Each structure stands twice: as structure tokens, then as C-alpha cells.
């Protein structure tokens, strides 16, 4: 039986822009199974950033239900949401978001420090994560001593720390050249083969096509089931 790791039902989100209201998400529903590799593709202004923020528990919807591993997110207070973000979601960002004064291994250790993992154990866990993404030999390097692709591998290793059920990647290849982008996608594919659930948000059709499942977002609505170059079926 396939296990559901997260589900959204009838999610809407709007923002006030001066005197007008922008409907960023329009009554969408989405289910992600454990071990899935879901890509969500859409242009600027389509609602994908808002969707990412809600999936990542960085923002909450106006209406609807969001359940992540049994937790009903919209009913949780801020301190619990911070715990959810630390334990259940590994974030991978376009611009890596590494701390420049910390080494690769120290950057990977950060989420483990917040969890209270003891120093020796977290160093071992962090090095294991770096080895998983093929950069264990750069553990002592600072970010400015690494290439863009290497920095993104460190960022992926940091997301892996603590083995969260979901890896949420926001334009993870957006700051990389095409060859390095494909190397990063291969890292993500290998992690997915090992059982990690990945949700990747992108504007790049070539990246979107590499998911097991692809959803298009447009004007705050979700579409699934077709070719990414053509119209999908509305699943809201």
C-alpha cells in the first residue's frame, strides 16, 4: 500500500496589493506519496512560490486543509511549525543559503544543532550526508572555496541531515550552468532511488520533465496528466 506523506485539500491563498486582491492559489488539492519525485513547473507569478511556502510551512493558507505526516498544519502554533520545518522538511534553495564563515560540514550540522544532537554524533551524521552527495572530501572547505555545483551539493547534504520525510527544492538548478544542473539532478535522482521523497519547484521545463510526476501551476491552479509542453488536466 502506497503511503501518503502529505495532502492538501481545497487550499486557497490571496494577498492584498494596494486596493486589489491577488488570488495566488485558487482552491487547489494535491497529494504526495512517500518515495515520490514530484516536479511543479510554472512561470513567474503563477503561484509556485506561494505553494512552496505553504508546503514548507513558511506560510499558511486562507482556506483548506494541509496534512503533513498526520499533522494538520493550519491548526499548529508557530513554535510547533518551527519544529515541523526542522524535522520534517529539508530545504534546498536556488542560491544555496550557506553560511560563508562555516565549513561545508559545519553548514550541514546546523539543523542537527537545532535538534540538540550531540557534537560527535552530528559530525558523523553530517559527514555521512556529504558522502551521500559525493562531496565528503570537501568537508573542511568554506563555501567560497567551492564551485556552485559543490555548494549546492553541500546544501542538499544539509537538507538530508536528520533524514526528513520530504526534500523541498526551490529552483535547485537555477544558479547553475546546464552541465552542473544535470549533475545536481542526478544527485536528486539517486536520493529518490534510496527512498527520499522530493518535491521540486522550477520554471525550467527540462528540469520539470525529469520528475516521476509533473504538475503545472498557472494562475493559482494546478494541472496534471499531460505533456509539460501542453495543457494538463485541472486537478483543483
TrEMBL record:
Keywords: ATP-binding, Nucleotide-binding, Transport. Residues 6-235 form the ABC transporter domain. GO terms for molecular function: ATP binding. InterPro entries: AAA+_ATPase (IPR003593), ABC_transporter-like_ATP-bd (IPR003439), ABC_transporter-like_CS (IPR017871), MacB-like_ATP-bd (IPR017911), P-loop_NTPase (IPR027417). Gene3D superfamilies: P-loop containing nucleotide triphosphate hydrolases. Pfam families: ABC_tran. Belongs to the ABC transporter superfamily. PANTHER family: CELL DIVISION ATP-BINDING PROTEIN FTSE (PTHR42798:SF6), LIPOPROTEIN-RELEASING SYSTEM ATP-BINDING PROTEIN LOLD (PTHR42798). This is ABC transporter ATP-binding protein. The lineage of its organism: Bacteria, Bacillati, Bacillota, Bacilli, Bacillales.
